[in-house]
Amino acid sequence: MIKTVKLAYLSDRKFLELYDRPILNDDLYCLDHGPIDSMTLNLIKGDASNENKKLWSEYLTAVDPETYAFGIAKNDIYFDELSEAEEAVLKDLAQEFRTMKPFELVDWVHANCREWSSPKGTSVPLTYADVFKALGKKKPEKSVEHVDKTRARFQATA
User: Fold this and answer.
1) What is the pLDDT of residues 4-18, one digit of tens each?
2) What is the secondary structure of 2-36 as a DSSP string?
3) pTM of the predicted structure, to 2 decimals
4) Residue 50, exposed/middle/buried by CB under 10 A (0-12, 13-18, 19+)?
5) Are 66 and 83 in contact (CB under 8 A)?
């Protein structure tokens, strides 16, 4: 599960770097093992609200609960909503980190994601502004405005 959650975050981070918007439109947090997409982690763990769990289970099914491998439960047009750019980022990151073990990836994230700070056993919100600053964006506030608009549109359709 750790590797899945880290790759989800790193995919969002890369997409933020390239396009000033996330793929998952999630709230971000720092945990001891690095930054995470909050709802995504909760859904993977089965800790989300009943409404979100129901939606999740309509589209994904656990293939192997031990490794958190998922399969598509319902072939639907919804899965055609990933753009070619999103698919490319997801594939590139999966390829880049394919040989890393979960805690090697955690160590990599700790060393390379400057926006992460240790919450010392708790969780701390991570703002998109913090991510943009760590990525070296010249005008992080403009990038945050873009994310806020994108997330508002996403939440309105969800």
Assistant:
1) 889 999 999 999 999
2) HHHHHHHHHHHHHHHHHHSS-SS---EEEETTEEE
3) 0.79
4) exposed
5) no
